[in-house]
Amino acid sequence: MRKELLACEDYARQLLRSDVKSVLEAGGYIFNSGGKRVRPGLTILSGKLFDPDDSRLIPVAIAMEYIHTATLLHDDIVDGASLRRGKPSANAVYGNDVAVLVGDYMFAQGVSTFATFGGVEVLQRALDAIRDMSEGELKQLEVIGKFDLSEEDYFDIIYRKTASLLSTCCEAGAIVGGADEQQKLAMRKFGEYIGYAFQLVDDAFDYVSDTQTIGKPAGNDIREGKVTFPLISVREKLSPFEKQKINHILNKDNSHQEEVDYVRKLVVEKGGVGETFNLAREYIEEAKALLAPFEGSKYKNSLMEIADFIVARTF
Amino acid sequence: MRKELLACEDYARQLLRSDVKSVLEAGGYIFNSGGKRVRPGLTILSGKLFDPDDSRLIPVAIAMEYIHTATLLHDDIVDGASLRRGKPSANAVYGNDVAVLVGDYMFAQGVSTFATFGGVEVLQRALDAIRDMSEGELKQLEVIGKFDLSEEDYFDIIYRKTASLLSTCCEAGAIVGGADEQQKLAMRKFGEYIGYAFQLVDDAFDYVSDTQTIGKPAGNDIREGKVTFPLISVREKLSPFEKQKINHILNKDNSHQEEVDYVRKLVVEKGGVGETFNLAREYIEEAKALLAPFEGSKYKNSLMEIADFIVARTF
User: Fold this and answer.
1) Out of the domains of life, which is the source (chains A, B) (predicted)?
2) Minimal CA–CA distance to A111: which of A119, B161, B106?
């Protein structure tokens, strides 16, 4: 895929053309801050399962990264984040004002690329994903500190904030590749399932990893009052005292490190992190099964590898 | 136009459908905070000069207001504004996080409506306008405190941040109405010229009006270091001492009210506000002249009235 990804980077540079300095600076900063290009990669590979016109597939793939980057810029404002991928976040370097506006620019540039190269179907799916992501983040804000967040609501949130765009990448690739309805649905579901797995693993790492490794402060979810699957999966095993204590910590304004570590340790001991990785692995298996009907190819193999990598990654 | 505008409000409510509470609350708050619906009005009237299908024109018109509303939400974050149309701004009530996300939602919802009802041409023009608005705001941030901002740069900024969307409204109406290329160009220019006039008058009011009347703090531009046409137009008439003093005030972090009033008074005395209103009036005359070739109708008359209202308004 090297050739296609290089073509992507090339196209990405073309898209980031503006006579306004801060678009180039802040846009370039965040766009080149070490993202793994998972979304363009999924889009291209999904397309290559079929018979795509590369002159359409590459722009659509890179537009997915534009949308993702815009979302990161805006999410960092929402979270008041100061670190992203181990580097100062764009809002920390350039300010919230530049981050919000450059995000808007990248949304418009990405959407315009979908309209030109993706056709109406890809465009509408991508717009659905943008809506999903903003609604997902908003819903997450609404349930901050909610100890008894239902599993259903948790999955609704992670669908919207993570799985929807990954699902859109895979489906868009299939659309551009000329897949039939059933094939499109399979790719859409493939993206959705690896999306759940991706977010589950992310949520697990908040419990067991360290800041150095994940490139953002570990334990942040607890500090911010976010109830995620590791906690949800062990909630029923907790004593009334433990429940009350965690509830208190989740709703405190400035939790001490010891308090955060208390929650982390307890959830790990009760098996919450193991449960979460197990569920992620199940989703990955389901996702891979969806690819079974497709003819073997290096592209299909790469999709399988990406799926496996999501649960095997150590960051 | 009452019928069409009521249909617009109806359609706007349909667009604001989400199962996420804060979308409805914050979205509804800003959308119903007393906007004059200038953009949907211009879109509809421009369309009605020709032969539009209302079932397409109304959604396109309201999508313009969605885009505008999204921009207001994001601009208030950029400006750190606490007042908008005389009421607490959405970011002040709901927080920057909700404001940025609901803005994103409204962008996506508006753009999706263009894609469904406006066709590719309207969609691409609208996306151009979104890029223009973010670039315009960014460029404005880059020249904060720049006493010798060129007239050319000033007009480039106000084109992008204000005139581009108004121009898009008029052109989009014409496109949906089935106008030919020359007619579309005329409507696009009409919108652009009234856009310049609109912003010029806005910039003049910052010098002569009061907070009560304009619904946001008067003198804000000076306080924030924004160099606008009233100042540009009198710059050459100032003594070296006056220039230096103004430069200092523009670049100060927390200017006293007396300092702001010093600049306001000086610019008014030198004729800068008069100059600005005169130029706005010239643009309005140019804009109205562009409508001359079109057959007389109540719609054309309303467009003329809107144009006149822009310079005659007292807020």
Assistant:
1) Bacteria
2) A119
Measured CA to CA, the distance from residue A115 to residue B96 in angstroms comes to: 30
Structure confidence by residue, pLDDT tens digits, B132-171: 999 999 999 999 999 999 999 999 999 999 999 999 999 9
| B101 to chain A: closest CA residue | A134
B23 vs A: CB within 8 A:
yes
Exposure string over B214-241, b if 16+ CB within 10 A, otherwise e: bbbbbbbbbbbbbbbbbbbbbbeebeee
Query: In the structure, what pLDDT confidence band is assigned to residue B13 with cuts at 50, 70 and 90?
Result: confident
Q: Are B228 and B195 in contact (CB under 8 A)?
A: no
Q: Is B137 on the interface with A (CB under 8 A)?
A: yes
Write phi, then psi, for A83 (nearest 5 degrees): -125, 140
Q: Does B124 touch chain A (CB under 8 A)?
A: yes
Which structure tokens are listed for B194?
């009234």
Q: Using a CB-CB distance cutoff of 8 angstroms, which residues of chain B are in contact with residue A78?
A: 96-97, 100-101
Fill in the DSSP letter of residue B87.
Answer: E
Residue of A127, A141, A142 lying closest to B111 (CB–CB): A127
Alpha-carbon distance values, A201 to A198, A229, A256, B12, B180 (Å): 5, 10, 25, 39, 55
Q: Over the stretch A90-114, which tens digit does the pLDDT of each residue have? A: 888 888 889 999 999 999 999 999 9
Q: What is the ipTM of this complex?
A: 0.91
CA distance B280 to B188: 17
Residue B116 carries which DSSP code? I
CB A190 within 8 A of CB A62: no
Cβ separation of B141 and A77 shorter than 8 Å?
no
Closest by Cβ to A78, choosing from B100, B123, B130: B100
A241: phi then psi, degrees, rounded to nearest 5: -65, -45
Structure tokens at A139: 């819903």
The answer to whether A63 faces chain B, any CB pair under 8 Å, is no
Does residue B33 sit in helix, strand or coil? coil
d(CA A175, CA A120): 11
Task: Give the pair of three-digit tokens for residue A243.
Answer: 């429940």
Domains delineated in chain B: 2-312 (1.10.600.10)
